[in-house]
Amino acid sequence: MNILKFIETFTDDSLMKSTGSRRDSFTQFGNIGKNLALASIPFGLSALTGKAFAKDITATPATPIGALQFALTLEYLENEFYAMALDSGVIPASENGGRDLKVFQQIAAHESDHVAFLIAGLGGTASANFVPKPTFDFTVGGAFDPFNDYPTFLALAQAFEDTGVRAYKGQAANLISTPDLLTAALQIHSVEARHASEVRRLRGLKGWISNAERGTGMPAATQAVYDGEGVTMQAGFNTAAAFGAAAGSEAYDEPLTTQQVVDIANIFIV
């Protein structure tokens, strides 16, 4: 069976129309996931041994289902990180007149919504395509203390959001022939970019990445998030020619491959 043709015949324009309710979108998106399972697309993260993102895995298959499973695990990570932070009280209620707390409450709500949306897209928790949430250790064995130290929390929040932006971009090719799924991923991607910009500004940085710099106060362990961002040649055009390398690199984000993101996520998965 031609899987991509199957998806194209199944997709419904009502999936992403603004006139539909969120529940309708979940239902339509979930139906795509269920039918993809019936079409026997190779599993992505669900095919891994024991847990998602085990340290000895290879990159997930370059399929629509693989991309959704990959995205879900990243959303699990962000969702749990913010939920734990809000529960811990590490975000000062008085910081910036209470603005920081409101920002992270809203980001947490977004991430929770993304998790629910992607689970629906995979056909629900009973689907063979569903991947369970891994076990996370945001302290990395005691190396970090994000739920007692606000600057550490902010640094990890920046790393996770910057990773998410590049990770979604890296999955675009796997979804290019499935327009509804690509649209859904792009809608999440743009929100992740807004999160990243806001968190960076809360840390006193620019809202965008310069060269391959992780920024002041970022742990060295997060450098993999920023490696490769210093590209200044885009489609044969030297973006640094007019305004310099920093501005040239800032104007374009670079994708991360599945394996690069797996390596980053592994740091926080036990």
Automatic annotation (TrEMBL):
InterPro entries: Ferritin-like_SF (IPR009078). This is Ferritin-like domain-containing protein. It comes from the Bacteria. It comes from Flavobacterium johnsoniae (Cytophaga johnsonae).
